[in-house]
Every structure is written in C-alpha cells, then in structure tokens.
Amino acid sequence: MLKKTLLALTFAGLAFAASAQQPGIKRTPLQKIDFPEGYTTVTAAAEVPPGGAAGRHTHPGVETGYVLEGEADLLIEGQPDKHLKAGDSYVIPAGVVHDAKTHGDKPLKIIGIYIFDKTKPLATPAP
C-alpha cells in the first residue's frame, strides 16, 4: 500500500510539474524506482508543442535527458543557452532554474530522467 501511495505521489508530482508549466505539454511517466537509497528515479517522455515552452522551474535533483525529435533552446540559469536537436543529450544540475523553448515548426520530444530526494516534490515553478 505504501509503495502504491508513493508511486501515486510521484506521478502526481509529474502532473503538478506539467500543470505548473505552459499548457499543451504532454508528460508520460514511464518508470519509477526508489534508487539509490533515499532517492527516487523517474523516467518520463515529454512533448512540447511548436512555439511552446516548459516554463521556468527547478528539480531537487539532477535531470538528464535525450532529444528524440525536434529542436529547442535550453536555458539553464548561470550557463550559456544551448540549442538542442534530435540526438543531443543534456544535464541540468539539482536546484538550478531552467526552461526549454521549442525552436522551429515541430514539437520537441524528449526522454527525461530525474533523480531526486524522495522527500521532495519532483518540480517547483520558478519566478
């Protein structure tokens, strides 16, 4: 029962992250495991429509991902903007404000992996 509750809370965190960001973003949780000790690892597919943005937010752990389709500008606070295209990967440090804005006329499709402190929400909107 506790495991199902934690899974529901994690996926609710994904839903919160999506709702706190721009409308039209589709997130699909693929897997959730409690590993390493004290952390949760979530793998998710995400799609941002053309002209869309993820919205400024943070995660309490590292995010790493791979671009399946489309292009985007990844804006990570304190770093130069990065232009990503299909086949590129990225890493966003824990707690750093970031955003992704699609580029071109195709949606951005990614696989994201989030490794975060299991006592904290997956994402928090940033001003």
Briefly say what this structure is.
This is Cupin. With 127 residues, the protein is mainly beta.
Short key terms for the protein model shown above:
Jelly Rolls; disordered N terminus; 127 residues; 1 helix; globular; 5-stranded antiparallel β-sheet; single chain; 3-stranded antiparallel β-sheet; mainly beta
The fold-level CATH name is: Jelly Rolls
**Distance, first to last CA:** 36 Å
Oligomer: single chain
User: Can you identify the CATH superfamily?
Assistant: Jelly Rolls
- Radius of gyration using CA atoms only: 14 Å
- Please list the strands of the largest sheet in the order they lie side by side: 1-2-9-4-7
Q: How many beta-strand runs?
A: 10
Secondary structure class reads mainly beta
Mean pLDDT: 87
Instruction: Report the uncertain regions.
Output: 1-21
For the record, the CATH class is Mainly Beta
The description of the largest β-sheet is: 5 strands, antiparallel
Strand share of the residues?
over 45%
Treating each run of at least 4 consecutive H or I residues as one helix, how many helices? 1
From the coordinates shown, what is the CATH architecture?
A: Sandwich
State the helicity in percent bands: 10-25%
Tell me the number of structural domains.
Answer: 1
H and E string: HEEEEEEEEEE
CA-based shape: globular
